[in-house]
Design a protein that fits this description.
By secondary structure, the chain is α+β, with helices and mostly antiparallel strands. The chain folds into 2 domains: about 80 residues, Arc Repressor Mutant, subunit A (Orthogonal Bundle); about 150 residues, Endonuclease Chain A (Endonuclease, Chain A). Helix content is about 45%, strand content about 20%. The protein is built from 11 helices and 10 strands. Strands 3-9-8-7-4-5-6-10 form an 8-stranded mixed beta sheet, with helices on both faces. It is elongated and about 70 Å long. About 25% of the residues are buried.
Length: about 240
């Protein structure tokens, strides 16, 4: 714990975190880093010394600072910490524990997504997913879905729709027309752990609240490739484990 406390102390500064992130992107000298920080060279040098003492950065013979191998390993972890810290209020009332652990470890891949609050934001995202889809739409929900409405939204015959829902959630759902059924595939899981809506370019995700029910009043959406891949990988895992209706 002592080593962890020392590391957290070294990182406990907005300026030092800015320097660390800047150095992770490019090799720079003291004067260049001071300009990036809008600080004096003396102040910047003190911050750099702290990072050097923690073995996060090192100074090369050319006078440029770079990350150490340890610093590079920490940089791989930071996106998850930044994402969770940025949305602390949200995650105080929402659960990640039901997700496969791999996706909790990778949660930083959602960092470049935008927070969407209110049912209107979620519905707008879903509408955008259908409107802009060229090849496919993937949906996951723990709610009963109106399949006839979904069939109508997927108006383009080239767009294939895949839907993941919990076992028993389709009881009483209206039958699909033959044309709709040709474009919509359903698979069932014992439990769906996150709400998802994505196409080949953009994605959105909603997490369960503390009661375990997916909260579609808030979530995250984005077109960043890492963000979309996280969502697509989670959907694909569920799809491969699901049972065909």
């Amino acid at each position: 714990m002592e080593n962890l406390a020392e590391l957290l102390f070294a990182a406990a500064s907005d300026d030092r975190l800015t320097l660390f992130s800047t150095i992770a992107k490019e090799k720079l000298r003291l004067t260049q880093l001071a300009a990036k920080l809008s600080a004096s060279t003396q102040e910047t040098s003190r911050h750099l010394s702290r990072l050097q003492d923690a073995r996060l950065i090192e100074k090369g013979s050319d006078g440029c600072f770079t990350l150490t191998s340890f610093g590079k390993a920490l940089e791989d972890v930071l996106p998850s910490l930044r994402f969770l810290a940025q949305h602390r209020a949200y995650f105080l009332s929402h659960e990640l524990s039901a997700l496969p652990y791999e996706f909790v470890e990778r949660i930083g891949e959602l960092e470049l997504g935008a927070f969407a609050h209110g049912i209107g934001g979620i519905l707008n995202h879903t509408t955008t997913v259908f409107r802009e889809a060229k090849s496919h739409v993937w949906l996951a929900s723990d709610n009963v879905m109106d399949l006839s409405t979904i069939g109508g939204q997927a108006a383009c015959g080239d767009v294939r729709v895949r839907i993941l829902v919990p076992l028993g959630s389709l009881a009483g759902a209206p039958s699909l027309s033959a044309e709709q059924a040709s474009r919509i595939e359903l698979r069932l899981l014992p439990k769906v752990h996150a709400g998802l809506a994505l196409n080949e370019k953009t994605a959105g995700v909603a997490f369960p609240d503390l009661s375990g029910k997916i909260d579609f009043n808030s979530g995250f959406a984005g077109a960043d490739p890492k963000f979309r891949k996280w969502c697509a990988d989670l959907f694909t895992l569920g799809w491969n484990e699901g049972k065909t209706l």
